[in-house]
Design a protein that fits this description.
Elements lengths: L5 E4 L7 H9 L4 E4 L19 H7 E5 L7 E2 L6 E2 L4 E2 L4 E2 L4 H5 L5 E4 L2 H15 L13 E4 L6 H7 L2 H11 L3 E7 L15 E7 L2 H7 E2 L4 H13 L3 E9 L5 H15 L2 H6 L1 E6 L1 E2 L1 H10 L1 H7 L5 E5 L5 E5 L1 H18 L4 E5 L1
Parallel strand pairs: 1-2, 1-3, 3-8, 5-9, 9-10, 10-11, 11-13, 13-14, 14-18
Antiparallel strand pairs: 4-5, 6-8, 7-12, 15-17, 16-17
The structure holds iron/sulfur cluster.
The site of iron/sulfur cluster has 9 residues, from strand 7.
């Protein structure tokens, strides 16, 4: 997954314990000091960089400090989006929204001041008090998404940031961490989550994943890991996303749900829930993808099925046409009810 050759870092990073730890983990990497993790000359904003899309993800790390900390209210998958301890990703899903913000390169950036982020989160949880009523995120706990801008299972290959968060939420009453992942990192099975972390394994039909989820763990292995993560003390949910519509998509998704039904034991089934997210796409990302993975765009860029939509965060996206999508969402809900009875759908859109 990673063969780190170059580490761009802010000047303060070597003096920070977590920064020093990451630098020591990759002793042969060239170190390049940069003024800010957002200003890496030659990496971001370099249209030529799209040709090195995968190479940058495998060979480059960026280290810096997260300056402003806030937990953003969310209300869909989580009650709050936690301040990130990283962004970017070493995997390369063609539909990934993370690079829409970064442009032309999207390697992992690790924030080394995780101690400050953890203190902030602890205070934030304390200020909430008990959750007044159940909601779609969780019946009891406040849920904090700790992996909005990357994949925590891969981040755990780089630093102990994710482990620190899992430990933190294992100790905190009334709150849990949550992250979606497409990578099975069995190191996490040796940690002690104590039910304080929800891992959402992202699934899509294997045939589609082979083309669209590049560098990720094969879907069958993700399903096979579910029981192990539940046994290790994680809550495990399904992140059924993105649903990519094409002729025959329903049969593929039914087959996937059957694979889950066959592959998951009673303990995992008893706690299982799912979220369903249909693909949204973006013209800028479409252009970037044409530069490195044009076959993916034959599936993702479907103007005959899609229409413009402004996202919650103000981005001009495209999504499947509303009336058709409403019908497809309902079809998939019904399929989950038939193939995985008892699996609650936390939300679908
Ligand atoms: S695993 Fe997630 S963050 Fe990484 S490339 Fe895929 S969608 Fe993006």
């Amino acid at each position: 997954m990673l063969d780190v050759r170059t580490i761009f870092h802010e000047p303060s990073v070597p003096d920070h314990p977590r920064g020093a730890q990451v630098l020591a983990r990759f002793p042969d990497a060239e170190r390049v000091e940069v003024p800010s993790h957002q200003q890496v000359p030659g990496l971001y904003g370099n249209p030529g960089g799209v040709q090195d899309w995968i190479r940058n993800k495998r060979q480059v790390l960026v280290l810096g400090e997260k300056k402003s900390l806030s937990a953003r209210p969310n209300g869909r998958s989580a009650d709050f989006i936690a301040p990130s301890t990283s962004n970017g990703c070493a995997m390369a899903c063609a539909y990934c929204y993370v690079p829409r913000r970064k442009g032309y390169a999207n390697p992992i950036t690790v924030f080394v001041n995780v101690d400050r982020i953890a203190r902030y989160l602890e205070g934030h949880v304390r200020r909430q008090g008990p959750k007044p009523q159940p909601n779609q995120c969780d019946p009891v706990d406040w849920v904090y998404d700790v992996g909005e801008n990357g994949d925590c299972s891969v981040d755990a290959l780089v630093s102990d940031n994710v482990r620190d968060l899992v430990d933190l939420f294992g100790r905190l009453d009334g709150a849990k961490a949550s992250f979606a992942t497409k990578f099975v990192n069995r190191d996490l099975l040796g940690w002690e989550p104590h039910g304080g972390t929800r891992v959402r394994f992202s699934l899509m039909p294997a045939e589609r994943a082979r083309l669209l989820d590049l560098r990720t763990t094969p879907v069958a292995e993700r399903i096979a890991a579910i029981d192990d993560f539940v046994a290790a003390g994680y809550e495990v949910h399904l992140n059924l996303s993105p649903v990519v519509v094409h002729e025959g998509w329903q049969e593929e998704w039914r087959e996937l749900l059957r694979q889950v039904a066959d592959g998951v034991g009673p303990a995992a089934r008893a706690q299982l829930a799912a979220e369903i997210i249909f693909l949204t796409h973006h013209e800028g990302l479409h252009e970037v993808n044409l530069g490195w993975h044009p076959q993916a765009e034959e599936w993702l860029w479907r103007p005959d099925l899609q229409e413009p939509k402004r996202s919650q965060s103000g981005q001009d996206n495209v999504r499947y046409r509303a009336a058709w999508k409403a019908r497809w969402v309902q079809q998939l809900r019904e399929m989950v009810a038939e193939e995985l009875p008892g699996c609650r759908i936390r939300y679908a859109f």
